[in-house]
TrEMBL record:
Biological processes annotated in GO: polysaccharide catabolic process
EC number: 3.2.1.78
Alphabetical list of Gene3D superfamilies matching this protein: Glycosidases
GO MF, one example: mannan endo-1,4-beta-mannosidase activity
InterPro entries: GH, Glyco_hydro_5, Glyco_hydro_5_CS, MAN-like
Reactions catalysed: Random hydrolysis of (1->4)-beta-D-mannosidic linkages in mannans, galactomannans and glucomannans
Record organism: Eragrostis curvula (weeping love grass)
Keyword Hydrolase: yes
Entry-linked Pfam families: GH5_mannosidase
Domain of life: Eukaryota
Family: Belongs to the glycosyl hydrolase 5 (cellulase A) family.
Protein name: mannan endo-1,4-beta-mannosidase
Signal peptide: 1-38
């Protein structure tokens, strides 16, 4: 169940196949760069305390979200947009993309039902990974959604009910043994997949920077946090039993919970402490390598006073950076952040100021040696996919100043 504190959905409803500007996309396809020649130039990204390293050099995430890559790659008519998105990002110096490695039920589903997967859609995910490698872009692959978009937690519970299970809430996803077996089977199928293009197992592919257990998990039916914590511990252990090499993150938004009552005032509202998540406790789970935080003051805070939003961002980010570095000794991923232009509440000028604030706070801590990780803007679209814009999309062809901002950040 989605709470009123977060009306922004993780993805819009599934679209019908769009008419793309193929000329634009094909021009971008032609700008592809070749993958690194030497294996040591494309080593696994690893964690060293609160910092990330690759090939014995510090690795900083200059990232973006484009959640629909696999979905578009599954249709030849829209596959061009995948290369277009990756090419534009690479051209701006971005090096990490967070995207969905799931689609549960519905149109172009990867998981058509429990234990059943569509080979053509899996080959679409193969394509996404292969194209990312060509563009020198690493991937953070999310394995499920808390929200109903692209199936997610609600679809798993529907499958359980169809199998005769007595489930009363979408939160049963986190506790029912049968439903958990559905998730585990899917995780195993993805992690052990042999890419039909590269002939490399996903679990061995350095193109993948990290796995994400679930996008924005919440379990408000148990505000103590015990239910979600038990699920995180079980699934982190399971993922690591299959793939002990890749980094792993949870995908939480960063709300403080009962384990740190002194930090509840940092949350955007009272509800956040009752969402069943707990930033410090969750990230002390064995097997979790990266802290994850999202930043959406435009939907979390009810007013539109810009200075208040920027002050919240500063407090929210600095507290999480301090805790990640000092209490958890982990890198931090600002996995999603952005400002919607959809309802006219804020304009592009404020969005860029907001983005500069997020980048500035992280880079300050990075340059001081406090912490590593990085930021991934929500979300980057090529012009040929702008019909998918949920209000947060940064379309480079229409936002040259934002493109300049991102490019400058990637050089920092």
């Amino acid at each position: 169940m989605e709470s009123p504190t977060c009306p922004r959905l993780a993805a819009p409803s599934l679209p019908v196949t769009p008419r793309l500007s193929l000329l634009h996309c094909l021009l971008l396809v032609s700008s592809s760069v070749m993958p690194p020649d030497a294996a040591d130039e494309w080593a696994m990204v690893e964690r060293r305390g609160p910092h990330l390293w690759a090939s014995d050099r510090p690795f900083v995430v200059h990232g973006f979200n484009t959640y629909w890559l696999m979905y578009f790659a599954a249709d030849p008519a829209t596959r061009h947009a995948v290369t277009a998105a990756l090419a534009e990002a690479a051209g701006a110096g971005l090096n990490v993309c967070r995207t969905w490695a799931f689609n549960d039920g519905g149109h172009r589903a990867l998981q058509t039902s429990p234990f059943s997967y569509d080979e053509e859609v899996f080959q679409a995910l193969d394509f996404v990974i292969s194209e990312a490698r060509k563009q020198n872009i690493r991937l953070i692959l999310s394995l499920c959604n808390n929200w109903e978009d692209y199936g997610g937690k609600p679809q798993y519970v529907r499958w359980g009910k169809e199998a005769g299970l007595e489930l009363t809430s979408d939160d049963d996803f986190f506790s029912d043994p049968t439903v958990k077996s559905y998730y585990k089977a899917f995780v195993e199928a993805v992690l052990t997949r042999i890419n039909t293009i590269t002939n490399e197992a996903y679990k061995d592919d350095p193109t993948i920077l990290a796995w994400e257990l679930i996008n924005e998990p919440r379990c408000p039916s148990d505000p103590s946090g015990d239910t979600l914590q038990a699920w995180i511990e079980e699934m982190a252990s399971y993922v690591k039993s299959i793939d002990p090499v890749h980094l792993l993150e949870i995908g939480v938004e960063g709300f403080y919970g009962p384990s740190t009552p002194e930090l509840l005032d940092v949350n955007p509202d009272d509800y956040s402490a009752k969402a069943g998540t707990d930033f410090i406790r969750n990230h002390r789970t064995p097997g979790i390598d990266l802290t994850s935080v999202h930043v959406y003051s435009d939907t979390w805070l009810p007013h539109s006073v810009e200075e208040h939003h920027l002050q919240f961002v500063k407090t929210w980010m600095q507290q999480h950076i301090n805790d990640a570095a000092n209490l958890l000794e982990m890198p931090i991923l600002i996995g999603e952040f952005g400002v919607s232009l959809k309802d006219g509440k804020f304009g592009n000028e404020f969005r860029e100021t907001f983005m500069e604030t997020v980048y500035g706070i992280f880079l300050s801590s990075l340059n001081e040696g406090v912490i590593g990780g990085g930021c991934l803007v929500w979300q980057l679209f090529p012009e040929c996919a702008e019909h998918m814009d949920d209000g947060y999309a940064v379309i480079f062809a229409k936002s040259p100043s934002t493109l300049n901002l991102l490019a400058n950040h990637s050089k920092s």
